[in-house]
C-alpha cells in the first residue's frame, strides 16, 4: 500500500486529544504550507487560515463549538476564514501579485481579470461568500491529508457558531467569516470512543462509477 493511503487509513476525526503532546512547529508549518499551495478557483485564494494557540481565545470558542474539547486539548487551532465578498480591490490585488511575481503582463490573463471584475463584485455578497467558502473546504481537504502525512491528528469541525467565532477572533472587521475549524494535536490513548473503531466507507463499487 502506498504510504499516503496508509496514512489516510490511519487518520480519523480524533474525538479526544492529549493536551500533554503539542505538535512541533515545523510540522504545523508544513501543514500550513500545503494549504497555501493548494488550488483555488482562479487562484484568488479567497480565504485565510488563522492559527490560534492562545489559550484564552480557544477557551472562549469551546462553548460555541458544541464543547468540543479538542479545541483546547490540541495545541493549534486552525480557523479557515473566507472572504465575506469578492471586491474589485481583492480581485485586482491577486491579479497584480501574479503579474509582479511573473514579471510580465499576459493579455489572456488580463482579459480573464476583466471578466471576473465584470462578474463577481456585482453579485450578491452571500453568493460570493459561499463560493469563497467552497475554496476554504479545498484547503481543509489539503490540511487533512497534510496532517495525516505528518502523523498529526486533526478534527474537522463544522459544529460551531460562526458568528460567535468571528466575534471572538475579530474576523468581521477584517472582512472574513469563519467556515471551518481544525484543531491539530495527538489522539489521547484513553477516552476516545472512536480511536480503535474500524474506518467505514461505502465500497468502491457504490462510490465510483467507471464509464469506459
Ligand atoms: C466538513 C466536516 C465537518 C465535520 N464536523 C465535525 C464536528 O463538528 N465534530 C466532529 O467530531 N467531527 C466532525 N467531522 C468529522 C466527520 O464526522 C468524519 O470525518 C467522518 O465521520 C469520517 O470519519 P473519519 O474522518 O474519522 O475517517 C466533520 C468532517 C467534515 C469533513
How would you characterize the overall build of this protein?
This protein is an alpha+beta fold and about 210 residues long. It folds into 2 domains: about 160 residues, NADH Oxidase; about 35 residues, no CATH class. Helices cover about 45% and strands about 10% of the residues. A 4-stranded antiparallel β-sheet has the order 1-2-4-3, with helices on both faces. Helix 2 crosses helix 7 and helix 5 runs antiparallel to helix 6. The chain is globular. The model has no long low-confidence stretch (mean pLDDT about 95). Flavin mononucleotide binds next to loops. Belongs to the nitroreductase family. Keywords: Flavoprotein, FMN, NADP, Oxidoreductase. InterPro entries: NfsB-like, Nitroreductase, Nitroreductase-like.
* Shape label: globular
Give the proportion of residues in helices: 40-55%
Strand content: 5-15%
Order of helices and strands: HHEHHEHHHEHEH
Radius of gyration computed on alpha carbons: 19 Å
Sheet bearing the most strands, described?
A: 4 strands, antiparallel
**CATH level-3 fold name of the largest domain:** NADH Oxidase
The CATH class label of the largest domain is: Alpha Beta
Ligand inventory: flavin mononucleotide
Assembly context of the chains: single chain
Number of domains: 2
> pLDDT under 50 segments (min length 5)?
none
Terminal-residue CA separation: 26 Å
Determine the mean pLDDT.
Answer: 97
CATH superfamily caption of the largest domain: NADH Oxidase
Strand order of the largest sheet: 1-2-4-3
Give the name of the CATH architecture of the largest domain: 3-Layer(aba) Sandwich
Number of DSSP E strands: 4
Which structural class should the secondary elements be placed in? alpha+beta
Protein name: NAD(P)H-dependent oxidoreductase
InterPro entries: NfsB-like, Nitroreductase, Nitroreductase-like
Organism: Marinomonas sargassi
Pfam family, one: Nitroreductase
Amino acid at each position: 500500500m502506498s504510504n499516503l493511503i496508509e496514512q489516510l487509513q490511519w487518520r480519523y476525526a480524533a474525538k479526544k486529544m492529549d493536551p500533554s503532546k503539542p505538535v512541533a512547529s515545523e510540522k504545523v508549518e508544513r501543514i500550513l504550507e500545503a494549504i497555501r499551495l493548494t488550488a483555488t478557483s482562479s487562484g484568488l485564494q479567497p480565504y485565510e487560515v488563522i492559527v490560534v494557540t492562545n489559550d484564552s481565545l480557544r477557551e472562549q470558542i469551546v462553548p460555541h463549538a458544541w464543547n468540543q474539547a479538542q479545541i483546547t486539548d490540541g495545541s493549534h487551532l486552525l480557523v479557515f476564514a473566507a472572504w465575506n465578498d469578492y471586491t474589485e480591490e481583492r480581485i485586482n490585488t491577486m491579479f497584480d501579485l501574479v503579474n509582479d511575481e511573473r514579471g510580465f503582463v499576459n493579455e489572456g490573463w488580463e482579459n480573464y481579470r476583466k471578466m471576473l471584475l465584470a462578474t463577481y463584485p456585482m453579485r450578491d455578497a452571500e453568493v460570493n461568500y459561499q463560493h469563497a467558502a467552497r475554496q476554504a473546504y479545498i484547503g481543509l481537504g489539503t490540511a487533512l491529508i497534510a496532517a495525516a502525512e505528518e502523523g498529526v491528528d486533526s478534527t474537522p469541525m463544522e459544529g460551531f457558531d460562526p458568528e460567535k467565532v468571528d466575534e471572538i477572533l475579530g474576523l468581521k472587521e477584517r472582512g472574513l467569516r469563519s467556515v471551518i475549524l481544525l484543531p491539530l494535536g495527538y489522539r489521547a490513548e484513553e477516552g476516545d470512543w472512536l480511536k480503535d473503531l474500524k474506518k467505514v466507507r461505502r465500497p468502491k463499487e457504490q462510490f465510483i462509477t467507471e464509464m469506459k
